[in-house]
Structures are given as structure tokens and as C-alpha cells.
Amino acid sequence: MVKAYFLIGFGFLFALFGYLSLDILVAQYLGNHPAMITDATAFILLPVTIAVEYAAYFLLSHYFLGMIKPLCFKKESIFQVVLLILNALFLYLFVTMETHRFQNSVSSDVAISVNDFPSSKIYFTSMAISLVLVLAVRKFWRKKA
């Protein structure tokens, strides 16, 4: 029963993070530029899609981390929180890099289309790198213990 609560709780936490992070990252991406949305349907569905992707990401990470070394729920919770924090740091880093790439070439009075935000590239890259790093730490930690 505790495992079910663990999975539901962290699944919800990851989905909530995915849903709420998009607004923050798009605001960082736009900076001081005015924005325009050309396809509102895609922009409404994108946070829900990212939330579902993060819930699946949590299940995948839980499965892979469990394959390396099963832990008690307290230590597993610590690994999942570290994974989420590491993912947030990589999201911030990649959006900052993407922002600097295009904002220098666009004048400040030009409206930027929000639909051009490369969300899939940024989110999937961040997910992959943070999962690989946490898996490497867990594998290294397993050998030490």
C-alpha cells in the first residue's frame, strides 16, 4: 500500500511540475519581448501533454532506478527529489542557452511567436541528461555500498 501512495504522490508531483514549468520557461524565453500566440489550441494542450510526459518520465525513472538497486521508500524519495531538482536546473540552463541564441538577433520591439518555443527539444534533452546522471550516481553508489 505504501508503494501505491509513493507512486501516486511522486507521479502527481512530476506531472504538476511539468504542467507549471511551461509558463515559467516561456516567460523566461520571451524576456522583454512582446508575444503572440498563433495557435491557441496547441498552447492550451501543451502543458497537459508535458504533464503526461513527466508522469511517464517518473514511471520510467522509477523502473530504471529500481533495476539498479532497490531502496527503501525514504532513500528512493530522496533520489526522485534529486532527479526533479536536477531536471529543473537543466531546464533553466537549456532555456537560458536557447534564449541567448535568438534574443541577440531580434530587436526588442518585434513580437515573438510563443509557438516557436522549442519545448520538446528542451524538455526531452533535460529529461534524458538528468536521468542518465542520476542513474550513473545510483550505479556508482551501488558499487560503493
Descriptive key words:
single chain, 145 residues, mainly alpha, two-stranded parallel sheet, 79% helix, elongated
Determine the structural class based on helices, strands and strand pairing: mainly alpha
Contiguous runs where pLDDT drops below 50 for at least 5 residues: none
N-to-C order of helices and strands = HEHHEH
Give the radius of gyration: 17 Å
In whole angstroms, the N-to-C terminal distance is 28 Å
Characterise the protein shown here.
The chain is mainly alpha-helical and 145 residues long. The protein has one domain. The protein has four helices and two strands; from the N terminus they run H-E-H-H-E-H. Strands 1-2 form a two-stranded parallel sheet. The longest helix has 31 residues. The radius of gyration is 17 Å and the shape is elongated. The mean pLDDT is 83.
What is this entry, summarized?
By secondary structure, the chain is mainly α.
SSE topology:
Layout: H1 2-30, E1 35-36, H2 40-68, H3 73-103, E2 112-113, H4 119-144
Parallel strand pairs: 1-2
Helix pairs in contact: 1-2, 1-3, 2-4, 3-4
